[in-house]
Amino acid sequence: MDLTHRLTVATDIATRAGALALRYFHDRDTLHIEAKRTLQDMVSEADREVETLIRDALSATFPDDALLGEEHGVTPGTSGLTWVIDPIDGTAPFLAGLPGWCVSIGACDADGPVIGVIVAPVLNETFTAARGVPTRLNGEPVGVASTLDLTTGLLGIGANDRVAAAKVGVMLADLMAAGASWTRYGSGALMLAWVAAGRLVGYLEPRMSAWDCMAAYCLIEQAGGQVLPFPLGDRITQPAPVVGARPGTYDEILRLTRVDDLTYWAI
After folding, report:
1. Concatenated DSSP letters for 190-258?
2. How far apart are alpha carbons 127 and 168 in whole angstroms?
3. How far apart are CA 92 and CA 245, in angstroms?
4. How confident is the model at residue 27 (pLDDT cuts 50, 70, 90)?
5. Under a CB-based contact definition with an 8 Å cutoff, are residues 162 and 239 in contact?
6. Of 31, 123, 192, 218, which has the fewest Cβ atoms less than 10 A away?
7. Which domains does the chain have, with CATH numbers?
8. Long-range CB contacts for residues 171-174, cutoff 8 Å, separation at least 24
9. What does the pLDDT look like over 123-132, one tens digit per residue?
């Protein structure tokens, strides 16, 4: 399987998808918006149309590959590779006119992430990587933070209604007591990409979907970082804990937050 070719194609598709999403962003006041699970979990025709563009383009080039998208679900494949798509990660900031959203196209096989492309159109940034192909930002090599740690850098945080609010409060209190400074910036996928670029020392979220993290997981691994393995196979459609970080900080995050303890975080 030629991952370099697939990465080139995915980057072109993500660029075109980002351009379409940006057009919708500039015309967002006319979009029809619906709530999904909660009033904070929103979707618009922009999400659906951008995902359709991505799926159609991938299927035309790689008809044997499977597809998993946030808006249109699963399309089976026979190649052993699954594309994992989030057309607009950060729909809430997208609809609010904020820059913290992105287009995310990842791919995985039975061993984990193999391709990652994240395009942030408002910020004019494109992150790319594949297994064996180092992470780049706008064509330039990047890597996880080499000198910052949990007490001197910034940690990205995500949370949602799939976990108890009180436990999120305990998690944040424990992190702050350990001297960590944390931030939240719209899109979890984008914050994970920033871990790969050395801007954040890590990112964690007690429950996240595959389409939010798969592309960025590849970026982090190929940039020298560590990730908490995401369930694959039949379990890939289920939310799971997500951690991506620089070495050393990764272990400290798990110790302080127990984010990998599924029993503790179960509602």
Report:
1. HHHHHHHTTSSSEEEEEEE-HHHHHHHHHHHHHTT-EEPPPP-GGGTTS-EEEEEE-TTHHHHHHHHH-
2. 29
3. 25
4. confident
5. yes
6. 123
7. 3-141 (3.30.540.10), 154-265 (3.40.190.80)
8. 171/206, 171/256, 171/257, 171/259, 174/256, 174/257
9. 999 999 999 9
